[in-house]
Amino acid sequence: xxxxxxxxxxxxxCSKRLDHGVLLVGYGSAGYAPIRLKDKPYWIxxxxxxxxxxxxxxYKICRGRNVCGVDSLVSTVAAVNTNSG
Length: 85
Description:
- The chain is built from no helices and 4 strands.
- It is mainly β.
- It has strands at about 10, 25-35, 40-45, 60.
- The protein has one domain (about 10-70): CATH 2.40.50.170.
- The protein has a 4-stranded mixed beta sheet, with no helix packed on it.
- Keywords: Disulfide bond, Hydrolase, Protease, Thiol protease.
- GO terms for molecular function: cysteine-type peptidase activity.
- Belongs to the peptidase C1 family.
């Protein structure tokens, strides 16, 4: 992820050790993946490293193959309004 510049990233190998949290914000059906030399479906991930990194602070990663654990190593947050007024 540190060397990402743009396009859809479809790495062959990822570390099994997670050391950074990101936010999955959307998806797309076809974006060019340079390593695969074709369009691939992708997740859009917002990184915390700021707008100067990646594509204005966002990262596109292949969708549908559990690349880097994006489909299985997930945490969620649910917000509940406790205001009764």
